[in-house]
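hey can u check if this looks right to u? its 175 residues, i copy pasted from the old doc so theres a chance i mangled smth
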Amino acid sequence: MSGVFDLLRHSGARIAVLGLAAALATTACHKKSPGEESGGGIGSSEFKAGDGSKGSEGSQPERVRELATVYFDYDSSDIRSDARPTLKSNGQAIQAHSEWKLITLEGFCDERGSAEYNLGLGERRGNAAKQYLADLGVPAARMKVVSFGSADPAVQGHDESAWRWNRRVEFRVSR
């Protein structure tokens, strides 16, 4: 089932189907402690499951070389110390490029955990990066967070050597 999302790509736009959440939940490995909530995700006002929306002038959000990906530890949305210089550099690039109207922060997870949990964790990761950039002076109005959960892994595989590259936030630009 993890490859289902890969089949749903069309013309470079990512589509996440929330209706598959129940079916994908059977692949869950993450066990929540009593009282632990799944966090934002589906009910959050910032959540958009890869809506493929176009930028202000009709162009698809694009990756740019000036904005680097940041990575996260397992089951965590805390900004790692090695991600801080990357985020600082990304913040400087965003502030230097006023033609970048909207920066989309895309949160991703590894394959472990339920679909619902991973969507929430991806959102928390995106929001943590957004807050860090806002604290550096990047206007929050120029940023939005989208969670893809475990859909669209950067590296295929079922061990830590792949998972470490899939726990990430990527940046896309709408001009």
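The beta strands are 70-71, 102-108, 143-149, 168-174.
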